[in-house]
Design goal:
2 copies of one chain form a homodimer. Chain A is of the alpha/beta class and about 325 residues long. Chain A contains 11 helices and 9 strands. Chain A has a single domain (about 90-320), classed as Methyltransferase, alpha-helical capping domain (Non-ribosomal Peptide Synthetase Peptidyl Carrier Protein, Chain A), CATH 1.10.1200.270. The first copy, chain A, has helices spanning about 1-5, 25-45, 65-70, 70-75, 135-160, 185-200, 205-210, 220-230, 245-255, 265-285, 290-305; strands at about 10-15, 50-55, 80-85, 100-105, 110, 160-175, 215, 235-245, 315-320. The relative contact order of chain A is 0.14.
Chain lengths: ~325, ~325
């Protein structure tokens, strides 16, 4: 809402939905954005609504054909123009100063850009991310990469947004400075354990595990704030942290994959994680072990959620406005 | 070239490529447009090139995934932003006054919008388009529909183009007032003959043929000029008619379908036509007769081209500029 009030009433309002995915929820999010523009216009007693141009972005590998097939129906109930702008949001996606509002509704755990993402391989033995057995420089390497990539993300959006343009993004975060004690890092630790169990039975080579690090990072609220301040293009209008409960996890999983009606939290979490990261594991470990890996992982996650029923994820939602 | 000189030097130049298709030639056309902008900027001694935003349009049924997969490579050699805007160009595709230049490189024989396109069924017996045995009102109905649809096309583009914005389009046309004597209409007459031959052998019902009319129209140069003047949004900067030779026919066919190295003109023409219109025939006559229909059509076309080696198509290329 606030995002629209802050931009001077334009004739055309361009909204760039980053990481739109291709599930049924993609256009629900767009619909929310359109409704918000309409209600603000009413509130401000504006006679005519701006034309709304939705630019949907995701990686070129996204299934855009499926998404495009649903545009005509959607436009009948929501008058707007919809285009698709494929590409990585760590690079420029739109011409300079052409975007009014940029929501990133479901940012996955921050994926590092390019192959340089994860720390040097072979030095984080038995882990696939930061864990309590990781040497200190692993956290340091991940943090540095986060700062570099997140800053690049902000810089690109600042170039694309109009003066006063706004951005809202939600990302998987952590509450504690020490990443090894909670949430997403414990999930990844269990994934490493599933792999190590398979290694102990000769199904996977230990060296393969040692040389693999997930290109994901879950920052603290302080890290996000500092990164935004350091980059300098945006003022933070609000930032809040919240736990993602069962319902949200299900909604998110439903976007990426079919989830059975009576699925457990563990099953939903694993399905969602598999949909989002399987290609990374396949290219490193081979497709043939995927079913077994994720079955073992699912069992470990069942145990985890029986001990920590609230052991879901933490998210940060930030609303920022361009200041220069 | 002229199109770029006529628009005041903007920071961002948005080029809407209508009917982009998904073949290898799609980005060749875009590349030509980018080169043209660059050479004009050099000619005008402009210090900095504008950012170029390419909006690729085609019907939602187009294979956009395939096209999108080639963007990254293309952008490496041609710095630009590329988006995809699916939809019918008989309706609005882009927000008001946001497009600088609108090329329509390969307009197919003008396809009527919606199902109301072709004349009332059952009154054009033994034909699938205008032919010498068609009653006069058939030409009249086709002409009216062309005027309505083409005017709608121009109106939408006029709303989308900036002041002074330009459009170039090429469409299949006819030289003679009487459509039954040349080019594309003779091609369609032979298609009707292939269907009637099948009807005489009981493979197709005659009523099915009588109730089918192709939603295509090939206007004369005069009709195009009059339609542009009547609609009123554009000034004609140039308009010319030209015959499409063997090379162009091959190029065009290559965009839509694989063509063998030693294919005859007839084979290429039929393949291209089949790719562009088969879905219309399938929904009316059923998929099962398609192979036989187009084989018979191909034989008739071989005969046609042996009699008229230059019996290709006529095109109109018009360059227009928005005047209000």
């Amino acid at each position: 809402m606030e995002a629209f009030k802050n931009t001077s009433s334009p004739k055309v309002m361009t909204i760039a939905d980053l990481g739109c995915s291709s599930g049924p929820n993609t256009l629900v999010a767009v619909s929310d954005a359109i409704d918000a523009v309409e209600s603000v216009c009413k509130e401000l007693n504006q006679k005519s609504l701006p034309e709304i141009h939705i630019m949907l972005n995701d990686l070129p590998s996204n299934d855009f054909n499926g998404l495009i097939g649903s545009f005509e129906d959607f436009k009948r109930s929501h008058p707007c123009f919809i285009s698709v702008a494929p590409g990585s949001f760590y690079g420029r996606l739109f011409p300079t100063q052409t975007i009014h509002f940029c929501p990133l509704f479901h940012m996955p755990p921050l994926a590092f850009s390019g192959s340089s993402g994860a720390p040097k391989t072979g030095l984080n033995k038995g882990n696939v991310s930061i864990s309590k057995t990781s040497p200190p420089f692993v956290l340091e390497a991940y943090t540095k990469q986060f700062e570099r990539d997140f800053s690049q993300f902000l810089k690109c959006r600042a170039e694309e947004l109009i003066h006063d343009g706004c951005m809202v993004f939600t990302l998987v975060a952590r509450k504690d400075e020490d990443p090894s004690v909670e949430g997403i890092y414990l999930h990844w630790e269990l994934l490493a354990q599933a792999l190590m169990d398979m290694a102990s039975q000769g199904i996977v080579e230990t060296e393969k595990i040692d040389s693999f690090n997930l290109p994901f990072y879950a920052p603290t609220s302080k890290e996000v704030k500092n990164a935004i301040k350091r980059e300098g293009s945006f003022a933070i209008k609000s930032i809040r942290m919240f736990d993602v409960g069962w319902g949200e996890a299900r909604d998110h999983a439903c976007e990426h994959c079919k989830v059975e009606e009576n699925a457990t939290t563990a099953q939903i979490t694993v399905k969602s994680m598999r949909a989002g990261s399987e290609s990374l594991f396949v290219s490193h470990f081979g497709a043939e072990i995927m079913d077994e890996l994720f079955e073992r992982y699912s069992s470990l996650m069942e145990g985890y959620f029986s001990m920590y029923p609230d052991g879901g994820l933490t998210n940060i939602c930030a609303f920022v406005q361009k200041i220069k």
